[in-house]
Amino acid sequence: MAGLTGHPVLEIGDKFEELQNNIINNNKNKEVIDKARLVVKGEENSNNNNNNQGGERDMAPPTSNSLHRSGSRPQLDLSKAAIQGNSEERDPTILLPNQSDDISHFALDIGGSLIKLVYFSRHEGQSIDDKRKKTVKEISNGSRRSYPILGGRLHFVKFETSKLNECLDFISSKQLHNGRIDSHYWNSEATNKENAVIKATGGGAYKFADLFKERLGVSIDKEDEMDCLVAGANFLLKAIRHEAFTHMEGHKEFVQIDHNDLFPYLLVNVGSGVSMIKVDGDGKFQRVSGTNVGGGTYWGLGRLLTKCNSFDELLELSQRGDNRTIDMLVGDIYGGMDYSKIGLSASTIASSFGKAISDKKELEDHRPEDISLSLLRMISYNIGQISYLNALRFGLKRIFFGGFFIRGHAYTMDTISFAVHFWSQGQAQAMFLRHEGFLGALGAFMSYEKLGLDDLMVHQLVERFPMGAPYTGGKIHGPPLGNLNEKISWMEKFVLKGTEITAPVPMAPPGTTGLGGFEVPSSKGGTLRSDASALNVGVLHLVPTLEVFPLLANPKMYEPNTIDLSDHCELEYWFTVLSEHLPDLVDKAVASEGGTGDAKRRGDAFARAFSAHLARLMEEPAAYGKLGLANLLELREECLREFQFLDAYRSIKQRENEVSLAVLPDLLMELDRMDEVW
Ligand SMILES: Nc1ncnc2c1ncn2[C@@H]1O[C@H](COP(=O)(O)OP(=O)(O)OP(=O)(O)O)[C@@H](O)[C@H]1O
Ligand SMILES: CC(C)(CO)[C@@H](O)C(=O)NCCC(=O)O
Predict the structure, then answer these.
(1) Ligand nearest to the CA of 109
(2) 290 C-alpha to center of ligand 2: Å?
(3) Region annotation Disordered: residue ranges (predicted)?
(4) What is the CA(219)–ligand 2 centre distance, in A?
(5) In testing the pocket of ligand 2, which one of 222, 269, 274, 405 has its CB within 8 Å of the most ligand atoms?
(6) Ligand 1 first shell, C-beta below 6 A
(7) Which of 50, 165, 421, 636 has its CA 20 to 30 A from that of 188?
(8) Measured from the CA of 296, which atom of ligand 2 is nearest?
(9) 290 vs 65, which has greater pLDDT?
């Protein structure tokens, strides 16, 4: 890996004030000030009057509008990216030598029902004092420029649009609108909100523009919703390994997309309303249809009919429902018989809600559970059917479904898949996306001129799940836990609650009777699991320098996970191995941190977090996407890192090193004494 040898390592800001003064005195423009803040380490001269050290530099008062506030948007330039220093390091610093500007930090999709937010953060621990925080110098045309080192994560968060204030508070609390989360140490002017512009799409980008200006002092740069949906979908399908999956009769299967054979496809975004878009390439698409019977209809009508207080409650109700009490089946009409001549079984729904009339029952005579299921089935099936008809119109074989109505919900996906399969007689395929509801927000995020994200390859994005993931089923994302202590107390709190905490369970596959007849979905647990923002979607780590082994015949299709845990025997075996080994690993981790009381507390919290992940995955192996042994081991490492165990085997290594060093002189002498034999 190219290590940029020969380029001196620079540090930020040491000569900022001095340069700034010079520049201001020289009446240069504000852009120069921004660039001048990145100064060569070791070249600080004695005239440097800047007393600021380390983090204090961040507090430098805003003096001008930063580059990323200007009309020309920032870029994340991944060209010539390389690892800085020792490439053997576990978490080596990534250099983006051609990265000059700050990058954008967040983008929004403000829909009729939900607000989706995607934001970027630098790798944890790269604080102002971090040794890894460096810049590189490049001399071109005789002028010196320095560049910050990037590498970071994409986070996904959602809020209800009716609770816009929660979203504004979140943005405020993380200072996203000030760009502070990442850029502050090389761009303190970011606190100047004047001219700050954020990208947003969805109707709310128009509707709430004034509110954003009022509350956060930022202007909204509106991006077209369809453009964003398509850009987001294309990015996910190309850059994320196993983003798409099929879901038939309770069985989930991840699909590896061939980049050269992606287009054309039909994208169906099931939000409050439904958009159907024929996608022919990057930026090449046509909205070919839509329907106003969508997620908003299910939630709106369902709320009126069942008095549910939340979408999740309504969805949960459906799990205990029996639609046969309310739907009119073919068998109800044909005296229990199939109408096989036209391919309809007795259990096929002939008319959704049809029995509500013939039984002459009032609303209160029906169980809310049955109403919810019937409604869910009606809407999902209808969407599947219309989608297929549009695919047929344009000869498309693949249909990708996104939007938060899907919500990773087994019954919804099975119903849509069934409709597509049934009407196309198996010729078309319904596929779902793990980042289902975030297409638009991702598209808006990527619309900051050129971020370089679209150039990322599958192996350069690694998805990780935070320690809280197994616990947060069904909840809309709240403010994240800030520091280590908060994380530990959070884990302790859950243990205190004891039996109330159960690992999330999947919804059992619905029974099907073929030919369109659906039986009651059976449910293992009373609670709806797998919330899309908290569980199915992790944090995407951008590792732009990762390269696959160059001699691979087909790097794009290379699968690093040689042990596939979708095989149940493998799964059980490895889960047992990892669970049994856990106490020993905790002991080693605690010892690696000196065995202090604090280390023990962190060790306990780690064990709890990792056990919760294991329990979650044992019940739903695909909860975090396709699962291989390598993912599981990486998950364990990530958990250790979350509780600040950098190397659980450190003390063992130390001991072994000491012992080795003690015998080294003797060994060398012995080698010296040996005759050279060639
Ligand atoms: N917690 C939730 N609260 C409300 N609706 C939810 C929730 N979770 C899932 N949904 C479903 O997701 C739908 C909204 O999906 P999505 O966020 O993709 O669309 P939107 O952008 O709000 O709508 P549109 O694109 O039509 O403006 C809702 O109509 C509802 O069916
Ligand atoms: C109006 C939008 C695009 C807003 O996201 C969406 O809700 C939608 O596609 N509704 C369906 C409208 C129709 O085509 O009938």
Answers:
(1) 1
(2) 6
(3) 42-76
(4) 25
(5) 274
(6) 111-114, 160, 202-203, 271-273, 295-296, 298-299, 311-312, 403-405, 407, 437, 476
(7) 165
(8) 7
(9) 290
pTM, rounded to two decimals: 0.73
- Residue 165 has, within 13 A of its CA and on its CB side, a CA count of 0
Q: What is the mean pLDDT of residues 10-34?
A: 31
Cβ of residue 273 lying under 6 Å from some atom of ligand 2: yes
Q: Residue type at 358?
A: S
Nearest to 196 by CA among 74, 100, 65, 108: 65
Q: How far is the CA of 371 from the centre of ligand 1 (A)?
A: 20
CA atoms within 13 A on the CB side of 8: 13
Q: Which of 297, 158, 251, 678 is nearest to 506 (CA)?
A: 251
The answer to whether 398 touches 431, Cβ cutoff 8 Å, is yes
* Span from the CA of 675 to the centroid of ligand 2 (angstroms): 84
The confidence score (pLDDT) of residue 669 equals 94
For 568-651, the fitting CATH number among 1.20.1700.10, 3.30.930.10, 3.30.565.10, 1.20.120.1730 is 1.20.1700.10
Query: Residue 663's pLDDT is what?
Result: 96
**674 burial level (CB within 10 Å; 0-12, 13-18, 19+):** exposed
Indicate the domain borders of the chain: 12-226, 242-438+478-535, 568-651
- C-beta of 275 in contact with ligand 2 (< 6 A): yes
CB of 290 shorter than 6 A to ligand 2: yes
579 token code pair? 């669970």
Q: Are 578 and 571 in contact (CB under 8 A)?
A: no
> Could you tell me if the ipTM is greater than 0.95?
yes
Task: Tell me how far the alpha carbon of residue 140 lies from the centroid of ligand 2, in angstroms.
Answer: 50
Residues contacting residue 152 through CB under 8 Å, at least 6 positions apart:
120, 121, 122, 123, 182, 541, 542
Its CATH class, for the domain covering 242-438+478-535, is alpha beta
pLDDT of residue 78: 41
pLDDT 10s digits, 654-665? 899 999 999 999
